[in-house]
Amino acid sequence: MNWNNIQLVFLREVRDQLRDRRTLMMVAVLPLLLYPALGFLMMQIMLSVTRQEQTVVIVNAEELPAPSLMTFLSPNDAQEALVVLTDDQAIWPAELELTKRERLEKLLTHIKDDETKIHHLAELKLADRTQSTTGDALAEAEIEQLRIELEQWFEEAKVEVIVIFPEGFREAYEAYTAQVTSGKSGVEIAAPKPLILQNSANDNSVLAAQKVKHAFQDWEQALLDQRLEEVNLPIDFVNPVPIDTLDLAEADKIAANVWSKVLPALLVLFSVTGALYPAIDLGAGEKERGTMETLLISPATRTEIVLGKFLTVMLFSYSTAVLNLVSMGFTFQNTLSAIGAVKDSPMGSLTFPPLTSVAWVILFALPIAALFSALSLSLAMFAKSSKEGQYYLTPLLMVALGLTMFCMFPGVELRPYQSVMPVVGPSLLLKSLLLDGILSKAVLTYGIPVLVSSIGYSLLALWWAIDLFQREDILFRESERFDIGLWLKHLLREKESTPSFVEAGVCFVLIGLLQYAFLISMQSSNAMSDAVSMMKVQTIYLIATVGVPPILMALLLTTNMFKTLKLQLPEWKFIAVGTILGFTMQPLMLELIHRIDWFFPPPPPGAVDMMKAMTAEQVPFWLALGAFALAPAVCEELAFRGFILSGLERSRRQWLPILISAMLFGVIHMIPKQMFNAALLGVVIGLLAVRSRSLIPGVIFHFIFNGTQVAASRMTSDQVNPKYTEWMFLIDPKTGEPGSFSIPLLLICAIISASLITWLIRTWTPEKPLDQFFLRRESHEQPATNQP
Fold it and tell me: Which is nearest to 618 in space by CA: 519, 695, 536?
């Protein structure tokens, strides 16, 4: 590899991108100009909202007991413009416009005339709209007509809130207060309730209503204090257990908690968007402009060209992320502080993280930018056009946003399993770093795993980009019009003996969608009320969602179902290998899972209940064996080592189909611990299927592996003779029960398993023609041709 060539390609691509005004706009102009403008605009909007005039009208204000509600409705901030009016026109402000005065007089006339109906409307709205509590029920049409009229009156009078105190309110309130203060017990006097009218479709009305309700709370507290004083009771009588709350967090810790959630999410977002447009331009854009051939005839190798393009995309992704973060952080810190100073809000104390934390954020932006740059470049290389590249990269942005939103949830912290997840690991590490500092336990414990895994994912994505750039059919394919009708006719008419790579992916997606639909339907069903029902539902679930799709797709989309699903008889030696590996791999995998159990999160309650149901006494052994051994062995092998593996083998790669099918096999199990276990076993079963060209050895292996676990879970210590098992298990000194497997047994199983897997790999010849069964079958399907 010549680094001078990589440097030349890198500098060429950087110069081309810097000549593009759109790139400069995204990388430099946008963060430096847009965010300060947005911050200034936000400040103006907040201040304009607080200054906007809001009118509140109080009807029957003479019914207010002392102290008056008007005192609490007075604006307590110079920036507020709350205008409070009563129906007493004598005290209306002189500066009130004549036009608005006339509109208010007309509104009050309507309110006075229909006050009884308005209270009926409120009662029916709060009750069941069928029966009034104080009078005859109004007709539904009349109620709706009254509501429409009220809404029109609000609009015409330009009023945000109307507070109606019913007649007799003050008299009833004073009578009840006198009864309470005199100490006499009698019939409770029910005072009529005030009514607040607002229009929730008007944001200004909602804001004014909130202020009115807060004023009512303060007014009620003042009235209550007055009553307590009249009966010679202390003010805190209604609060028998007063509580003092002490918040130990300092202002900088609160700010760090906010930034620890915001900055990682913004870093991921800007890294993706920064890599999006340069990757499309350097990948699909090169194809459209016809400049790809110029690069290919240069002295640089294709790997060097990809590395140069990757460094270019990474440079712009990293620059976009860093510049946007710095500009946005300082802008919004100052903006929020200014708003907080105006409103006396805790947001006013929001301080930007210290420079050491910002430096670590900038450092950890490198692996994140590298990952998204490599993925974006790979997808852009695969795309035929810039438009298609945007379609491919948009889901990448959605997935990245979903992962970052998960990291922002309360209680989500860095754990061993999360530390090796792409995007999630770096985001949670940054969250811990901003919150607790570089010397926090999470950073010291998981810093290296996060960095190593992130670099590994980036290298894997970069390898994919290099691999795509090596293929002529990817580089020089032209854009084509897609017609779904013609595509479906092509699938049904021009069938091939085995599925394509895309059809294998469709099968996996279909299985995932069916499982999701089945699980959702089961949540609202009582079909899993007992252990026996759970076993039956588990069997039906596997058959319907995993077993049926590959069979139907093989019948509809291929000409050779037996070849697609690998349903021929293998050689006896592969059956023997599958049988032996089923027994020898069992202790090794159980011991491995037991040793790294700390790494995975606990299983969900549903999975625990399912495991308990498997060992329940009322469940027959044959039913548990069928649900957890036979059904998975047949259905999952038909899907993942049958249809999906056959489609992936069309890539003509040796190990890639096995590894991808194993990964998909793990993903479909959903529970992290089972995903890891299934993925490792999927590699072994996939090797068996490819080597034997048959599904049967894998089915046997799968059935034995799961079946022995079912049998072991159903056995009790009384049923096991220690004389025959003491060499297999280590006895737990605390319980006296068998614990982990013994070292000699694990060594024997490891030697046998390693020998058999090595034999499968060494004797594997992927170029070897298929079995004569398929050769003869395909010869009958093809028309005869005359040889020259």
Answer: 536
